[in-house]
Predict the structure.
Amino acid sequence: MTSARPDRDAVTDHIEWQNATILCIVERTRTIRSFFLQLSRPFGFTAGQHVDLRLTAEDGYAAMRSYSIASSPTSSGIIELAIERLPDGEVSTFFHDVARVGDEIELRGPLGGHFLWPAHTTQPILMIGAGSGLVPLMSMIRQRSSSSRPVPTALLLSSRTWSEVLFRDELLAAERDGSGLSVALALTRDETTRSGDFARHVDGAMIADVLRRLPAVPSHVFLCGSNAFVNVATDGALDAGLSSATIKTERYGG
Amino acid sequence: MVTRGFIGRQPASKDAHRLPPGQHVVNSFPVLSAGPVPRLATTDWQFVLKLGPRVLKAWDWAAFNRLPQTTITTDIHCVTAWSKFDTSWEGVTVDDILADAGLAAPTEFALAHSYDGYSTNVPTADLINSKAMVALKYNGQPLSPDHGGPARLLVPHLYFWKSAKWVSGLQFTDRDHAGFWELRGYHMYGDPWREQRYTND
Ligand SMILES: Cc1cc2nc3c(=O)[nH]c(=O)nc-3n(C[C@H](O)[C@H](O)[C@H](O)COP(=O)(O)OP(=O)(O)OC[C@H]3O[C@@H](n4cnc5c(N)ncnc54)[C@H](O)[C@@H]3O)c2cc1C
């Protein structure tokens, strides 16, 4: 039992709903599209945070879902969301099948005070994601790239196939820029072309292998994806010797 | 604001009144938590009742299972906007826990603590009078680790993060201390019917 938690009053202001305009839609993979939204009231955020979107029908029925922010914090007032189309999904199919440039979407944020990029750490970081679970990790990787002294970081990313690797070209370019980012792909239904990638589901041995690519034991471990994936990845991370106190998870439900 | 072209999967009208604002019904049972699922055996489990730092009473797994078991069927509402109707739980009401300790609720506020180090605050009035239990079973089966097993708090009339998974005890406090999520932007009380999701909602 821990009761030695800082006991301060929560000071965050009320986070208001606002309208955002879809500026641009980009096809990322067969099932994932990016939506660039112009905020009417721009906000700062920390990589890893999400927004809540609210869609309202003519008769007042409303549906709300959370989406992580993919872009890095900038002052532009534009955020990028990357939404995966789930068959029969209420909100994600709206975005893929109905939404178009110029539409207004109600949202509020930034939300989430736990799965956050540690801007001041000097220790290595490990990230493990699957599919659209890359989104908050991508924001972190983008924020990291813009820092003056990027910490060594390893990303283990599970995708079905090479062509379904979200943000693949950007990730591989970031790996090549020499700043100490290492990217390992785990392709579950494809062959690998790069040495250091894997053609199987994430497991403990794979995580141990990726850990050896970091100069020291990571002080922060971020895991994101479906609940089933996050459970497998956490088991693997614990088996690889990481301490549960360093592991933060973001589960997309399911 | 009406969203152009959005129709949505509307709830059957007979159920609409059971759905708090901004929520949608799911048939699955999504899982959300901030870290790893603790690896916890019932032989290592205990439940501790405290007043501030002082232990009032502790139960091991066997003793806790000998307390009166109550079954309830209830709707639950997660802050990430899903609601699940008619979930069935079995466990020990907070009233029965207090009765076994020979106590009346000692203060107005409480913190539920969990084996993974998290905590959440709930006013005592929301825990007593059959409003809350420490659940040991879901749908007649032992609670799975994913859903908070061996035992989780169940406070179904508040957003579900208040129903602390892997609960290790209740600590009565003299004022309303923010728990883990409440320190990280979530509402101190969390009433779904008033849509108290985030701080100052
Ligand atoms: C903090 C957080 C961040 C997230 N970030 C992202 C992100 O960056 N990108 C992303 O793509 N997702 C993200 N998600 C997931 C996202 O919030 C949605 O859950 C997801 O988009 C599915 O919503 P939906 O309305 O399309 O599907 P839903 O309608 O919620 O359905 C989900 C699935 O269940 C099935 N289903 C459920 N109920 C029914 C029913 N009654 N009838 C028929 N079928 C049903 C659907 O077929 C579908 O496959 C995030 C979630 C969280 C909690």
The pocket of flavin-adenine dinucleotide is lined by residues A 50, 65-68, 82-84, 86-92, 132, 135, 250, 252-253; B 9, 26-27, 80 (CB under 6 Å). Chain A has five helices and eleven strands. Chain A touches chain B through 54 residues (CB under 8 Å).
